[in-house]
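Researcher: Structure prediction, please.
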Amino acid sequence: MSDETKDPNATQDTPQTEEPPKPEAVPASTEAAAKSPDAKLTETANVESSAEADKPVDAKPVDTPSTETQTKPEAPAEVSTKPEPPKAEAPAKPAPPPRPPAPPKATPTAAAAGGHKPPAPPAKKGPVVTVEITDDPFIDKIKAKFGDAISEAVATYGQKIVRVKKATYHELLEFLHDDPDSEFDMLADLTAMHYPAKAGEEFDIVAQLYSTTKNQRLRVKTAVADGEDAPSVTDIWEGANWMEREAYDMFGVKFSGHPDMRRILLPEDWPGFPLRKEYPIEYRDNEWTDKHIEYREVDYDTSLINVRYAERR
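Model: Predicted structure follows.
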């Protein structure tokens, strides 16, 4: 294609000439400084001051907000467009009922001013541990046989207790030993108790029975006056021999019909009976020892003690 058929609107690649850069305007102060003789000295001082300014300073920097911090606008907080679910309201707690006002405490001064003493608190009642035995075939049988001689039939913590008159004491124990419904073949214990305030019945003789075949227990009591003998049961249970001797040794109660009625724990001439309530325990042992034991002073050489201690040193 010839040059004549080219598009007339097309631009021709003509070389463009670049314009030389324009010289920057020099400030008047710089020109004046260059003309002055002290310009070089001033320029040197400015360079040194700028170098000192670049050195780290030991002093703590002052917390002053920079220009960038002051002028920088804060980004707006993002606002959530999601709808929040409605919160379930907690049920309101009912208010506690108001407490009644405490009664005023009575002071000793107020009680004395009133001329009367405050009432004592009621006594505390303990549990009932002793009850009357009723509807018991075994106890009913004893009552039917001995009648008025049985003055008491009670139970304490499940332990059956029968009280009998002294005249029927031996007969009752013999019946309890031989009767096939009871068969108390073992005398577990026999002792006494002292009640000085009970005139004519100062001592209780207590026999604890046990049946090895029936596996049952019974306690039998009888009252004896001071200085009066109690019936012995050694003919029913041979084991009562030492038990009745111990009761005599401690309480002074003698048992009629006993084969060997004498002390068993203390010497025969021991003054008094230790388990009586009026027995003076203090210095009573000295009374007997002063009578039977001869005291002798021992003369020993004390110099030997010093010699022994000297040897140990």
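Model: The radius of gyration is 61 Å.
Researcher: Thanks, that helps.
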